[in-house]
Amino acid sequence: MSAYRGLVQLGLGLWTTLRQIGRGASTVSYPEEALKLPPRWRGRPVLTRDPDGDERCVACQLCSAVCPTRCIELQAGEREDERRYPVSFRINFSRCIYCGFCEEACPTLAIQLLDAFAFSTEHHRDLIYEKEALLIDGTGKHPHYNFYRHAGVALHGKDKGQGSNESPPVNGRSNLP
Amino acid sequence: MTLFLMALGMLLTTVVLLGLAGFLVFAERRVLGLLQNRHGPNRLGPFGIGQALADALKLMSKENFVPAFADPVLYRAAPVLVAFSALASFAVVPLDRGFSWAGDWNIGLLFILAMSSLNAYGVFLGGWASGSKFALLGAVRAVAQLVSYELPLGLALLAVVLLSGSLSLNGIVQAQWMPYIVLQPLGFVIFLIAGVAETHRLPFDLPEAESELVAGFNTEYGGMRFGYFFLGEYLGLTLIAVLAAALYLGGWHGPWLPGWIWMLIKTFAVIFIFFWLRASLPRPRYDQLMALGWKILLPLSLLNLLCTAFAAALWRLG
């Protein structure tokens, strides 16, 4: 009886593998085929700009402080309109572990881990990215967000977002990734 | 002149067989990929067939290293013995009607069994001469396994000899007015299982079980010496497949197509079964392997032989 059952199991096992022939490979031949990256993929960190085209980064050093591998190094400077900005911003990608802590720590959503991931080089020194290489001309994952734009508070006779240099309130849920 | 032509022909046969073994290594990986939802090697050349060449080049360009703790003579001799015994067996295998070196030899089948025993010597000596515990364990397993499965293999073949009345492979193929798999279904299954164990292919690869014994009897081997073991294994696989095709599937007999094409088709079908088994089945425990050999296959093959003999006697009388 057990021999009979064993034979049936054997046959079922063989049938299971034989059935796979027509199904094709589930391998993605990566360099030729594009990968489907998940929406929250953590790729290479970049510095983004706000919708008005200004740098979002305010050089608060939080990303550098939270970085577990200490691969972020920056120097703060101040513009003529008293807005802070990074004079230099340097990430050593031979140490970066793509944990995304810098992105979480960033109060202005400036540093973001976008989807670039294949940038191997021959030398370690080519993996130290300076600010010119990090700063992109887009807004990244948050197209409408601007740290300096605010809706203010409602006062007598003035609703949120109606004062000078105030903008209408944003639906908080629209910011979710 | 004839001698020179013969030598040339033998050289050519050997080269073709070695090429076939190299191709089988590649083909196995592709077939496994097919059965396991992946690609297998597909980079070099059309369908990745250049991978076989690349592997061969890699093995040949490696250092011929003899470990200090190994027995130097036997260590060098064992891989050659394995590859030689597998190659020599092909001399008696007919590819087509009258197309073989010694297909008419009246002890062809015995010769093949003898060569497969010699193959076991190569495996054992290789493991023993390596002077390493993993290799020794693999070698001990190999010998026990080969001895246990040679018996059912020989008994299954004996039934075929009984039916055809010939020990030469040509004679056996000629005697098949219908493929012997119809008359000997049990014998075919026993032959196939014993053949898998005899070539220590998966699922019966206990002599080289890499999850337990590193690489078993060829742990200490590298470069082309390892390549000889590898070639020997794949040539042995081809030999069992060719034998199954010649003894049970009707050899070169078949409609429409020329005989050698039929022979190739049947051989590759059996080889596919080998690959398929590898893709599907897990390795049994060692005691299970022994129990299967001695407690199931041996009585079954004896029973098969007895029934065949009885039927043949009745046939002769009636």
Automatic annotation (TrEMBL), chain A:
Question: What is its membrane topology?
Answer: Peripheral membrane protein
Superkingdom of the organism of origin: Bacteria
Please state every residue range assigned to the domain named 4Fe-4S ferredoxin-type.
Answer: 45-77, 87-116
The protein's annotated catalytic reaction(s) are: a quinone + NADH + 5 H(+)(in) = a quinol + NAD(+) + 4 H(+)(out)
* HAMAP family according to UniProt: NDH1_NuoI (MF_01351)
Q: Which family does it belong to?
A: Belongs to the complex I 23 kDa subunit family.
Q: Which NCBIfam families match?
A: NuoI, PRK05888.1-1
Q: What is this protein called?
A: NADH-quinone oxidoreductase subunit I
Species the sequence originates in: Acidithiobacillus ferrianus
Biological classification of the source: Bacteria, Pseudomonadati, Pseudomonadota, Acidithiobacillia, Acidithiobacillales
TrEMBL record, chain B:
Sample GO molecular function, one term: oxidoreductase activity, acting on NAD(P)H, quinone or similar compound as acceptor
* Annotated protein name in UniProt: NADH-quinone oxidoreductase subunit H
The cellular location(s) given in this protein's UniProt record come to: Cell membrane; Membrane
Quote the InterPro entries the UniProt record gives.
NADH_UbQ_OxRdtase_su1/FPO, NADH_UbQ_OxRdtase_su1_CS
What does the organism's lineage look like at the top? Bacteria, Pseudomonadati, Pseudomonadota, Acidithiobacillia, Acidithiobacillales
What is the first-listed, main subcellular location in coarse terms? Answer: membrane
Give the organism the record lists. Acidithiobacillus ferrianus
- One GO cellular component term, please give it: plasma membrane
In terms of domain of life, where is this protein from? Bacteria
One short Pfam name that applies is NADHdh
Q: How does it assemble?
A: NDH-1 is composed of 14 different subunits. Subunits NuoA, H, J, K, L, M, N constitute the membrane sector of the complex.
* Alphabetized UniProt keyword annotations: Cell membrane, Membrane, NAD, Oxidoreductase, Quinone, Translocase, Transmembrane, Transmembrane helix, Ubiquinone
Family that this chain belongs to? Belongs to the complex I subunit 1 family.
Q: What does this protein do?
A: NDH-1 shuttles electrons from NADH, via FMN and iron-sulfur (Fe-S) centers, to quinones in the respiratory chain. The immediate electron acceptor for the enzyme in this species is believed to be ubiquinone. Couples the redox reaction to proton translocation (for every two electrons transferred, four hydrogen ions are translocated across the cytoplasmic membrane), and thus conserves the redox energy in a proton gradient. This subunit may bind ubiquinone.
